[in-house]
Write a structure and sequence with these properties.
The complex is a heterodimer of chains A (288) and B (327). Chain A is mainly α and 288 residues long. Helix content of chain A is 72%, strand content 3%. In chain A, helix 3 runs antiparallel to helix 8 (184-206), helix 5 (138-160) crosses helix 6 and helix 5 runs antiparallel to helix 8 (184-206). Chain B is mostly helical and 327 residues long. The chains are: A mainly alpha (288), B mainly alpha (327).
Chain lengths: 288, 327
């Protein structure tokens, strides 16, 4: 019974984390840059939902529809202002710029909202439901359903739409994509927009699942990074597998290992994946 | 030495003497600046010279602090013995991580993530491991102040200890930079395959770099633990120190001997001043300052202060910095 509970909780957490990570995977695939401000940008989306609820009583599930497009503009702007000038330089440089951005975001959030832990409750908050006999918060289930829908939509868009074809072409071979008439810069800008917009849609939904603190960004960046690496950093399917591995190992680890040693499980798995399968490692600079 | 390096020496000398006139508050900050400068320099030996960038120097910092601290707390062992043991342990950890990285061809970003994973594992482990105080931490009993207990009675003496540590780091960094070892480091950083073709063993280079860097960082951990007299998993194993140190190094100039020191000496006191002056009304101003400064620096002068000054005075760079644009 305990095992079933762990598995259900793990799968729910894993799929949610997979959608959170999918933006990072997209950006890495297309531009070869790991977005170290990923978690911080998710914190921005969550705090925006918190603010909208506090000021005007807008339900986070509703405000996510507005925050998503807003974050798309943010992502597009970030690419144009910060990434575009330095994207052909050393890979550590882009990481530094994005880490700097994460610090700036953390500081601004601290100034505006203080260091207290916050949540933004939606219409489903405080209620429980049972799945396979396992009690689970309804907000988690809602976030899980949103994540499944989001991942499906993203998968279809990547497979079937023109935008998806351009994106995959650019990720596969930038030079060839350029030669067949794809504006690589525009694809990269759009990828940043979409990658950050995903956080805008999912962040408010998660505002009652994960607790908000101004310094949460780095933690979720690291989690997403682990998922990208465990999943191989190339495909959406890999990201989903990575998310499930991290979600399940953390939940089951916390259930069966004494104390909080279970929290170690995802990291141990990350080391194992890196050692067993070096091909999963991120390229230092993409071949171009 | 070049003109630039003489200039840097002068600045360091002035910066060293100034705090003595400014009172114990600034001496405290000067002590921490010296520690950060030393750790930044140690990070630079691995990340800047040999291109073995690590995000997990908190691991070494924590090993140094907890080895000496726990031995002192449980058995009353002299912190000096702890310092040496901690440095050796950290060097061993550095060797293992670097070997793991080369053996399984985990390079660049993935290697940085690997080091981060090890640091996080150590942090979580120490946070739950009872003999090391778990998440409550360990309060070290204050002993007789003096050199033997590495506990210093005044801000002045602790600043001197910080300076001694910084001098050690700079001596190591400078030695590595000018000896053939440094040329091997740079060769591996610029092109590992070409270096290997010329008979350089990249395993040996990366292992040496991480061992040196780790040992120096562990020494900083011991000194800082004896200064705080309190061991806490987040302070020592958490990622904060590593992030700050990388920021200082990048702003100062990655891959140069004095860059990390200059970066730390300029940024850390400025950040502390901001926190003291405005921290009451506007918390987080120092983080905002660090973050925006790093972004501006990376976008406008990616080779750091040292690299930019070097170019301005027309001094031909012998060793291109990894942050600089490829020709």
């Amino acid at each position: 019974m305990l095992f079933v509970a762990g598995v259900v909780q793990g799968i729910v957490l894993g799929i949610i984390l997979a959608l959170v990570t999918s933006g990072m995977t997209l950006i890495y695939r297309v531009t070869g840059i790991i977005n170290f401000a990923h978690g911080a940008l998710m914190a921005v989306a969550m705090y925006l939902a918190f603010d909208l609820q506090r000021s005007w009583g807008v339900d986070p599930l509703l405000s996510s529809l507005a925050i998503g497009p807003l974050m798309a503009i943010v992502g597009w702007t970030l690419f144009q202002v910060l990434i575009r000038p330095i994207r052909r330089r050393h890979h550590l440089l882009a990481i530094q710029v994005l880490l700097g951005l994460a610090l700036v975001i953390e500081a601004l959030l601290l100034m505006r909202y203080g260091a207290d832990m916050r949540t933004a409750e939606n219409v489903f908050s405080g209620r429980f439901t049972t799945v396979l006999g396992v009690g689970i918060e309804l907000t988690r289930i809602v976030a899980f359903i949103v994540s499944v829908l989001g991942l499906t939509a993203l998968g279809i868009a990547l497979r079937r739409s023109d935008w998806g074809r351009r994106l995959r072409a650019t990720a596969a071979d930038e030079m060839a994509a350029h030669l067949v008439g794809i504006s690589v810069t525009r694809v990269e800008a759009w990828t940043w927009g979409i990658g950050v917009a995903i956080l805008g849609f999912v962040g408010p939904v998660l505002a009652d699942v994960f607790k908000m603190t101004p310094d949460m960004g780095l933690r979720y960046t690291i989690v997403a990074l682990m998922i990208v690496i465990i999943g191989g950093g190339r495909t959406m399917l890999g990201t989903i597998v990575g998310g499930l591995v991290v979600g399940l190992s953390e939940t089951l680890g916390l259930l069966y290992l004494p104390g909080s040693y279970g929290g170690l499980m995802p990291y141990a798995l990350l080391v194992l994946v890196l050692v067993v399968n070096p091909r999963a490692t991120l390229a230092m600079v993409r071949g171009r | 030495m070049t003109r630039v390096e003489y200039g840097a020496c002068l600045v360091v000398l002035l910066g060293t003497l100034a705090p003595f006139w400014l009172g114990s508050y600034w001496l405290d900050i000067a002590f921490l600046t010296a520690m950060y400068a030393g750790i930044a320099s140690a990070w630079n030996v691995a990340g800047g010279f040999s291109g073995t960038a690590s995000f997990g120097h908190g691991l070494f910092f924590g090993i140094g602090a907890y080895t000496s601290g726990a031995l002192f707390y449980h058995f009353g062992t002299s912190p000096w013995l702890g310092l040496v043991l901690g440095a050796l342990l950290a060097a061993l950890a550095g060797v293992l991580i670097a070997w793991c990285g080369v053996r399984y061809s985990i390079r660049g970003l993935s290697f940085a993530v690997l080091t981060l994973a090890f640091a996080e594992i150590a942090w979580m482990f120490v946070s739950t491991f009872e003999p090391l105080g778990a998440s409550r931490g360990i309060s070290l009993p204050p002993g007789a102040p003096g050199l033997a207990s590495l506990q210093f009675p005044s801000a002045r003496t602790s600043f001197l200890a910080g300076l001694a540590f910084l001098a050690l780091c700079q001596a190591v960094a400078w030695t590595v930079h000018v000896t053939p070892l440094g040329f091997r480091f740079r060769a591996v950083r610029e092109n590992e395959k070409a270096a290997q073709a010329m008979g350089i063993n990249p395993v040996l280079v990366r292992v040496t770099a991480m061992a040196l860097s780790g040992a120096l960082t562990a020494i900083a951990g011991t000194i800082y633990a004896q200064y705080l007299l309190f061991l806490d998993p987040r302070t020592f194993f958490g990622p904060d120190v590593t992030i700050k140190v990388i920021l200082f190094t990048l702003v100062g100039g990655i891959g140069s001997v004095w860059g990390p020191v200059i970066g730390a000496a300029l940024l850390y006191p400025a950040g502390e001043w901001l926190r003291a002056a405005f921290g009451g009304q506007v918390p987080g101003l120092d983080i905002l300052f660090y973050g925006s400064l790093v972004m501006v620096c990376c976008l406008t002068f990616p080779s750091g202060i040292v690299g930019t000054i070097g170019r301005l005075v027309g001094h031909a760079k012998r060793s291109p910095t990894p942050g600089a644009p490829a020709a």
